[in-house]
Amino acid sequence: MTAYTEDLIHSLTTLNRIAETLNRADDVISALRMALADLVELMGLETGWIFLKDPAARSQWFGRGFTLAAEYNLPPTMARTKAAVWKGGCDCQAFCNRDTLTEPFNEVRCSRLAGIKGDERAGLTVHASAPLRSGNQTLGILNVAAPDWQSFTPEALALLANAGSLMGIALERARLVDLLREQRIDEQAALLEFSNQLLGRLQQRDLLDFVVREVGRLTGVDAVALVAPDADGRLLFKAATGWRVDPAAAATTMPDDEFNIVGQVMDSQRPFLAEDLEAHVLPLYQLEWLQGEDFRGYTVVPLIIEGQSIGALLLNTRQPRLLSEMELRFLRLLANQTAIAVDGLRLRQEEAQRQRMQEELSLGRQIQLSMLPKQSPALPGWQIDAVYQAARMVGGDFYDFFDLPGEPRRLGMAIADVADKGVPAALFMALSRTVLRTMALSGRGAAATLLRANQLILNDSQSDLFLSAFYAILEPETGRLLYANAGHNRPLWHRAAAGAAQELRARGIVLGVFEEAAIEEQRIVIEPGDVLLFYTDGLSEGLDVHGRMFGVPRLAELLRQHAQCDAHEISSAIVAAHNQFTAGAEQSDDVTFFVVKRVANPEASPAVSPS
Hints:
A hairpin with a 5-residue loop joins strand 13 (397-404) and strand 14. This protein has a six-stranded antiparallel β-sheet with strand order 8-7-6-11-10-9, with helices on both faces. The chain is elongated, with a radius of gyration of 43 Å. It has three domains: 3-178, GAF domain (Beta-Lactamase, 2-Layer Sandwich); 200-348, 2-Layer Sandwich (Beta-Lactamase), CATH 3.30.450; 372-604, PPM-type phosphatase domain (Phosphatase 2c, domain 1), CATH 3.60.40.10. It is 40% helix and 23% strand. With 611 residues, it is an alpha+beta fold.
């Protein structure tokens, strides 16, 4: 890196540091003092001071028409309390008053230092002066002192000039802030009252009507309207005041296209101002209703919330008028408050709707849970335990147990999964459960029950939903199990004699899709010590944080490991393993299963309630 590059980087870093100091501080005088200290030290000097022009300074202290705003590391004999040094004018002030202090920097033999004894002025004899300017106006003088001219390198003087410009800009900004602060007192009061009124209006119609009325009153225009996109993508007049023909009452719309000024404003998020519409080319439809109202002055400001345009305010006058910068700024503040209020009302309404939906879902969950068996059947020689976990407040899985008519005693067992989630799945689940149970209680076999249920579901359902189902008929005394599968997950049968699990296979298609469905029926015998696991795909297809599936082999291994346990202990082990595997991952599907175990000693098989 060359010495020139290093000096350039040093200068730019210095200016950036000074600019940050000036922009960050609320008090401009304090900022000038900090910036002066940085500048003097970074220029390799020791002393500096800043005069500000002040017409109110009538005395000779610091020079007529000037005040000493900031100083840094002055020699003791130049303390601001030393009247002999500071009282009266000096050459640099004279140059400034004669408008000859116009160069980026000026090297001056200091008349104040000249009046101090040589051993008391710390070797200082000259200073470089830079005007603090804003535009063509000189606001003050920046001085840095040195023993001789050689202390002021070209780079240092360039740095001084740029620092003076930055300080001048900061001073002008502070002056404007002071002026605006006085002008904004009434404006802020009006804006506060406007905001308070908006917060108290909880109905959209009332809110929007108030906005157009109050914006018209505060800006003194003849007519105001508020437009927003409708469901069809057109711009709809939501509220209006001052119009001869109310466009909001007439539900007037206009296209949101490249020819529409309102649409352009919303897309660009920049206001549009026209002193006189007659000087502008407008779309025919827009020109007709504007001219029909005798509008001339026309202003459009966007309503913006979180970077998105949600509408626009239209202001019109019947005489040519162009809003000033101050008026436009105030109008944009009103528009911002309006956008916040409109969006806040929308969010409150959505939250109220969400709460109502949550309450309805909670009630739906209670109803849905009431449709599941309240407890497992009590069968001598058998243990049954069930688990149900919906992915949402309500779900599409269900299981069922019911005694079938006739002798010997037979138990119907069903498990099903609707191909959807949430409310639609819950409603379809209620229909399907009722149909399936009714068909089973009519005395049909396993396959016949599913086939007839398929026909009724197709007849009654008006949706595109369907479900998979597995239905089995158990004879507790003999252990015989008759079953049929309508496209559902194959239950696992852990055979104590083999020490391993196998799937209960039977061909079949899901219910609620095809009128002509083929469903196969199979028979097995459950021996003492055998365990059956009926489940939905939410169990076997549960995912971990890496997207890996829980899987059927893991279920089979869990059955093998816990086959000697009772049904409740087996289901608890499955739940624990599944929760550990899916920890940290979102549950995306309902988890439903039940365990059926035939025990060797019927007296040691108490009924087990669902988990």
